[in-house]
Write a structure and sequence with these properties.
The complex is a heterodimer of chains A (380) and B (295). Chain A has 380 residues and is an alpha+beta fold. Chain A contains 13 helices and 18 strands. Chain A has 3 domains: 72 residues, Dna Ligase, domain 1, CATH 3.30.1490; 124 residues, ATP-grasp fold, B domain (D-amino Acid Aminotransferase, Chain A, domain 1); 147 residues, Rossmann fold (3-Layer(aba) Sandwich), CATH 3.40.50. The chains are: A alpha+beta (380), B alpha/beta (295).
């Protein structure tokens, strides 16, 4: 779950990381009030999960209330690369002596935590990694031992920051590490981390991704749910507890197991179709779940045909077949369904489908046959 | 021969008294697995259809000589259960549970590595492991597997593993061991751990390796194959069409910063001499060709 900048900053602030005083605003009046509170000059920043906000005109500095009113009005409601701006973050503008980069994430290959620190901040770290890889100081941290101050000091020295920033950077990095671990973040990134002319080090931006598997121990995350970028289909799927990701194509996909569903998307693509979604009904799916799945796919106006791809392991194909038949009775399905059943009780399942077979419900023996048929139907 | 588990492996089920635990534990027993014990702090002294329940793994090991454990505990309790198994003397720990926080996984993985270097961990979020005809630990439907080799299977995906087992069995090709390493960011057992064991196992003559988008485990496996594996490999990578930045069902299946794509993994494996199937259906015929050529 990716947080907006202001949510990330609020999370940082809870762990004692210095951020600029500011507030989020959803209306122009709120933005002006936030600006008065923060003290001019202020920065008004569009809150969207996409890079290049500044270039798109989504970040402006206002020196007085008139400017704050004008810029907030410009930015709220703006479309930045397909992301509508609902919220702006207004904070006191900082004087900047230097811009750095700091982050913690998991190195999946090393199976250890991974920290990156660079004296070249304010640009994308991938760009620095390509143009000047030696400018990034990297460390691995054993999750059992944690980040020690000694290790952090050596890391800061290797990054060659302005010596005036060393003490402040140490404090920020130790706190950022705690936020990363205790906050159950997949990523905790500050870019830029700035040094002010007065020698203070603080976070000017926040990029935080949370591990949804840890949601059960973070009741405070409930407030982030509402601000996720979900389209209508995804919201409906979420309300029904389905594992769904919306895509742009015309073939609706339902399958059991993440790997099988991913490969179903691939096979549809290989035979010339375009998947409309990823939807994994998991193991042991029954009639209710399948009816819900069909309903969500049916709500997508782009869908022209539906592919149900089941490999029975724990899931029994006859139960899936009954579920689909029941779903057809409950939901007014617009598009034909092509179903492939294999594995546990496949023959029983196919017999059930055969008894209900029509132009709207077609059984195919293999994944490839089914993919070809569904793509043909979607194109017709 | 087989890898990790065989007909002599005695298994304790942590969470045997729960719904999932009792369903699959008893199913594993019906398959022939030596299901010797279950644990539950509150139900010690009782039994689940004849399988004795102990308060702790340590007690179960002392009484039954179990060497493997299978964990069906809900996600919040998994970290504690894994360390309890290691402290209790278990050598091979299988975690079926899905939804374990990544930080928990990173901690217990390293805790085991630092303090219990002889303990192997499989999972979390995996279907388990089956040595057909001898031992099935986890949720793999045993009836679709065929004993006797010559194919070893290792996979990040559950259903694609079943699909591969089924395809092999349908063609009359047996399996030595089938290992589901799971779809999480910090899997306890890696492709390389399995490839090295399959390479050393005289009965395994060919290997199926099923990967997916996210991370670099397939690329690392490709490097390992180049240097160490002489047995033929058929592979498949799911997620060619997956959009970047989305977790595709598995916590670990995500393309981030342009890394972890199916194309890069396919290229690395082909470069290492593996035959990469264009879709899961192709795995069967490709492996049948390989097996026919083994002589």
């Amino acid at each position: 779950m990716a947080l907006l900048e202001y949510q990330g900053k609020q999370l940082f602030a809870r762990y004692g990381i210095p951020v600029s005083p500011g507030a989020a605003a959803v209306t122009v009046d709120e933005a002006v009030a936030a600006a008065e509170q923060a003290g001019y000059p202020v920065v008004i920043k569009a809150q969207v999960r996409v890079g290049g906000r500044g270039k798109a005109g989504g970040i402006k500095i206002a020196d007085n209330a008139d400017e704050a009113r004008q810029y907030a009005g410009d930015i709220i409601g703006m479309d930045i690369k397909g992301h509508l701006v609902d919220v702006v973050w207004v904070e006191h503008a900082s004087d900047i002596a230097a811009e750095y980069y700091a982050s913690f994430t998991l190195d999946r290959a090393a199976k250890k935590y991974f920290g990156m620190l660079s004296a070249q901040g304010g640009v994308e770290i991938e760009t620095v990694a390509e143009s000047d890889p030696d400018a990034i100081a990297k460390i691995h941290i054993d999750p059992v031992i944690g980040l020690t101050e000694e290790q952090a000091k050596a890391w800061i020295a290797a990054a060659k920051l302005d010596p005036a920033a060393d003490a402040g950077a140490l404090e920020v990095l130790m706190k950022l590490y705690t936020a990363y671990v205790d906050g159950d973040c997949d990523l905790a990134e500050i870019n830029p981390l700035i040094l002010t002319p007065e020698g203070k080090v603080h976070a000017l931006d926040a990029k935080v991704t949370l591990d949804e598997n840890a949601q059960y121990r973070h009741p405070e995350w409930a407030e982030y749910e509402a601000s996720q970028d979900l389209d209508e289909r995804e919201q409906l799927a979420k309300s029904k507890g389905l594992n769904y990701i919306g895509l742009d194509g015309t073939v609706g996909i339902i399958g059991n197991g993440a790997g099988l569903v991913m490969s179903t998307l691939d096979v549809v693509n290989q035979v010339g179709g375009t998947p409309a979604n990823f939807l994994d009904v998991g193991g042991g799916a029954g009639a209710d779940l399948l009816a819900n799945a069909v309903e969500v796919i049916n709500s997508d106006p782009n869908v022209k045909a539906i592919f149900v791809n089941i490999f029975g392991g724990i899931t029994k194909c006859d139960e899936v077949a009954n579920g689909i038949v029941e779903a057809l009775a409950r939901v007014d399905v617009r598009s034909p369904i092509v179903i492939r059943l294999d594995g546990t009780n496949a023959e029983e399942g196919r017999a059930i489908i055969k008894a209900h077979e029509s132009d709207m419900l077609i059984s195919q023996p293999t994944m490839l046959d089914a993919a070809q048929r569904v793509v043909q139907l979607a194109g017709a | 021969m087989s890898i990790f588990v065989d007909g002599n492996t005695k298994v304790v089920y942590q969470g045997l008294t729960g719904n999932q635990g009792s369903f699959h534990g008893l199913r594993n027993r019906a398959y022939g697995t030596k299901v010797v014990a279950g644990t539950s702090p509150k139900k010690a002294g009782t039994d689940v259809e004849g399988v004795p329940i102990f308060a702790t793994v340590k007690d179960a090991v002392a009484e039954t000589g179990a060497t493997a454990s299978c964990i069906f505990i809900p996600a919040p309790g998994v970290a504690g259960a894994v360390m309890e198994a290691a402290e209790g003397g278990i050598e091979f720990i299988v975690v079926i549970t899905e939804g374990v926080p990544a930080h928990d996984e990173a901690r217990f993985y390293n805790d085991l590595k630092n303090n219990y270097p002889d303990v192997s961990l499989l999972g979390p979020n995996c279907p388990g492991i089956i040595t057909p005809g001898e031992c099935n630990i986890g949720i793999t439907p045993g009836e679709i597997a065929l004993a006797g080799g010559p194919v070893g299977i290792v996979s990040r995906s559950g259903t694609l593993t079943y699909q591969a087992l089924y395809e092999m069995t349908r063609q009359g090709i047996g399996q030595t061991t089938c290992v589901g390493i799971g779809g999480d960011p910090v899997p306890g057992t890696s492709f390389i751990d399995c490839l090295s064991r399959f390479q050393a196992d005289p009965d395994t003559k060919a290997i199926i390796m099923i990967g997916e988008i996210g991370g670099s485990a397939e690329e690392e496996a490709a490097e390992y194959i180049k240097a160490n594996v002489t047995k033929p490999i058929v592979s498949y990578i799911a997620g060619v069409t997956a959009p970047p930045g989305k977790k595709m069902g598995h916590a670990g299946a995500i393309i981030s910063g342009g890394k972890g794509t199916a194309a890069a993994k396919t290229e690395a494996l082909e470069d290492a001499g593996a035959r990469v199937a264009a879709n899961p259906v192709e795995i069967g015929p490709l492996m049948a060709e390989v097996v026919a050529g083994l002589g």
